[in-house]
Every structure is written in structure tokens, then in C-alpha cells.
Specification:
Elements: H1 2-14, H2 17-20, H3 24-32, E1 37-41, H4 43-46, E2 56-60, H5 70-79, E3 84-90, H6 94-100, H7 107-118, H8 129-151, E4 156-162, E5 168-173, E6 176-177, H9 179-185
Parallel strand pairs: 1-2, 1-3, 3-4
Antiparallel strand pairs: 4-5, 5-6
The structure holds zinc ion.
């Protein structure tokens, strides 16, 4: 308990302009700027990323699923009209491991794991294949939900893979996948951003 209070205290201190002597300018600037993209990610992987918080409408959810986050995403996509939805999966995601085998889980966890497991095309446990299949399944779920906007060119849905060092790869673009297809269709994206 003491440890939790200490952590909380640090968190409050670091985010309080008076005690932290903070960069007021930055705070003001980020308030005025609208986010540029939606990032649906897993709390486990957010720690690894370099990011400008002001650019991102962040949706962090175990396993990074559209399911359980519909209202949060609907608001960003349909009310804020943000044009880019990134679905990010990551190396070593425990939600995916637990989707295959969880000895103890609440009913809500079980529902999530069943949903995730349904997205695995094969029973293979190979990585990163399983993670990529999960990302593809979640991109497909987003495309099913927001297909009207994608068709009209108002929204792009992409899949990203984050490795254990925080390096990002583009693995899916509006349902298009595979290094060859992606690099052919997106000549403006550097080839090092695709997963070989
Ligand atoms: Zn995860």
C-alpha cells in the first residue's frame, strides 16, 4: 500500500505545474492542438513508444481490441473526424498468450480471450505470426465498423506491429497486408517500415 501511495504521489507531483515547475508553454500548445491520429494499443506496449502525446487520441486496452472500446473509438472517428486509426499489436502480448491458455480469468477476461482467439487463423503458436493475425483481425473489425468512412476516403485504418524494443512496422493498410503488396501500394513509405 505504501508503495502505491508513493507512486501516486510522484505521478501527482510530476503533473502539477506548481510543484514540478513545468513547461507551461508546452502544456498550452498541446491544449490548442487537436490530435492527428487514433492509436488503439495495449498498455504493455505504450511504455515503449516515442510519441508526442498531443498528436494522439490514445485508446489503451489489454490486447488492443475494437471490442470493449466501441464508444471511445466511435467518438474519435465519427465526432472528432480523425482521419487515421492505428491498431497496434506488440511482441510478447500477454493478452494473446492468455487467449490461448489462461488458468484463472474473470468472466470479462474470458470473453475478451475468446474474441482474441477467434481471430487466430491457424492454431499455430508461432510468433510474430499470431500477433500479426490478431492485428489483421482487429483491423478487419475496425473496417467492418467504419467501412462507410473508409470507402469515402475519410478514414484510413492501419495495423502496426511494435517489437520489444519499441520499433514500429506497418503490417496492414485498409485490409491490405503482406510486405510485397504494401510496398507496391505505398511507394511513399520507406521499405524498412514493412516487416520482412
Ligand atoms: Zn499486450
Amino acid at each position: 500500500m505504501k508503495k502505491a501511495i508513493k507512486t501516486l504521489n510522484t505521478f501527482l507531483t510530476e503533473n502539477n505545474p506548481e510543484s514540478a515547475g513545468v513547461k507551461e508553454k508546452e502544456a498550452k500548445a498541446s491544449k490548442e492542438k487537436a490530435p492527428k491520429l487514433i492509436l488503439l494499443s495495449c498498455p504493455q506496449s505504450m511504455r515503449l513508444l516515442e510519441l508526442r502525446k498531443e498528436d494522439i487520441y490514445s485508446v489503451e486496452s489489454f490486447g488492443a481490441t475494437v471490442m470493449t472500446n466501441e464508444a471511445t473509438l466511435d467518438y474519435a472517428v465519427r465526432r472528432l473526424n480523425l482521419p487515421l486509426l492505428c491498431v497496434m499489436g506488440h511482441e510478447g502480448c500477454e493478452a494473446l498468450q492468455r487467449a490461448v491458455r489462461a488458468e484463472q480469468a474473470t468472466d470479462e477476461e474470458k470473453a475478451l480471450y475468446e474474441h482474441i482467439a477467434a481471430g487466430f487463423r491457424e492454431k499455430t503458436k508461432k510468433e510474430p505470426q499470431r500477433t500479426l493475425e490478431h492485428i489483421d483481425a482487429e483491423v478487419a473489425a475496425a473496417l467492418a465498423r467504419y467501412g462507410d468512412l473508409v470507402k469515402r476516403g475519410k478514414l484510413t485504418v492501419v495495423g502496426l506491429y511494435c517489437d520489444e524494443t519499441g520499433r514500429l512496422f506497418l503490417t496492414n493498410y485498409n485490409g491490405l497486408k503482406g510486405e510485397e503488396a504494401l510496398s507496391y501500394s505505398l511507394p511513399e513509405v520507406e521499405s524498412c517500415f514493412f516487416m520482412a
